[in-house]
């Protein structure tokens, strides 16, 4: 009995000791939460990843504005020489001259014949200079010179005046065709001519006139594109006229550099008997 009592007392004491919190001082109990530490340094940049798949195609943009007119292109090669034209009709017979005085002119006939031959050669030389070296075209009363120096309309008009003439004015169908053939023979497609816009009147309308300020009257060879607008639409100071190698007229911006044709009257004089047309 006493043995059981001692065992019971031992067990009770043992349980009391182990149940006391003071005995478990070595157990891992978490402490209070500490302060937040400083941020670490930024790490190195990582490696570049693989390219992703291409995106969808965007919506097409609107078309841009029409660009300005480009500069005049280089002059093309000269065309082949054309066939010789047909012989013209004989002119009318002149009036009968007065009867000459009878004289012994036998010894002078040889000299006169030689002079006539020399005059003929001189005329041929002059014709060669005008038609070949200078490239002039001529009618009964006028010369026409193609100037192969691209200039704006106003400067082209001034250039012709400095030479003693004006921009060529095709006032008839024959002159218009002569100028068109002139352009073709030079291997060109268009040139300035003496047709320009007239200032607007009090009604707000305008028209075209020749370089000498005369009206176009009934002759005009507008192209199909310009035919509907040549008389109905008002002219402006920036809308000049060009002659095409087809013989038709077309509007063109006055600031466009183009070749041009000048005309010179044969009867005009300067000073004492000198001709006015300067083709240099």
TrEMBL record:
<dbReference type="GO" id="GO:0005581">
    <property type="term" value="C:collagen trimer"/>
</dbReference>
<dbReference type="GO" id="GO:0008083">
    <property type="term" value="F:growth factor activity"/>
</dbReference>
<feature type="region of interest" description="Disordered">
    <location>
        <begin position="34"/>
        <end position="90"/>
    </location>
</feature>
<dbReference type="Pfam" id="PF00059">
    <property type="entry name" value="Lectin_C"/>
</dbReference>
<dbReference type="GO" id="GO:0001503">
    <property type="term" value="P:ossification"/>
</dbReference>
<keyword id="KW-0732">Signal</keyword>
<dbReference type="InterPro" id="IPR001304">
    <property type="entry name" value="C-type_lectin-like"/>
</dbReference>
<dbReference type="GO" id="GO:0005615">
    <property type="term" value="C:extracellular space"/>
</dbReference>
<dbReference type="InterPro" id="IPR008160">
    <property type="entry name" value="Collagen"/>
</dbReference>
<dbReference type="InterPro" id="IPR051663">
    <property type="entry name" value="CLec_Tetranectin-domain"/>
</dbReference>
<feature type="domain" description="C-type lectin">
    <location>
        <begin position="139"/>
        <end position="263"/>
    </location>
</feature>
<keyword id="KW-0430">Lectin</keyword>
<keyword id="KW-0176">Collagen</keyword>
<dbReference type="GO" id="GO:0030246">
    <property type="term" value="F:carbohydrate binding"/>
</dbReference>
<dbReference type="InterPro" id="IPR016186">
    <property type="entry name" value="C-type_lectin-like/link_sf"/>
</dbReference>
<protein>
    <submittedName>
        <fullName>Collectin subfamily member 10</fullName>
    </submittedName>
</protein>
<feature type="signal peptide">
    <location>
        <begin position="1"/>
        <end position="19"/>
    </location>
</feature>
<keyword id="KW-0106">Calcium</keyword>
<dbReference type="InterPro" id="IPR016187">
    <property type="entry name" value="CTDL_fold"/>
</dbReference>
<keyword id="KW-0964">Secreted</keyword>
<dbReference type="Pfam" id="PF01391">
    <property type="entry name" value="Collagen"/>
</dbReference>
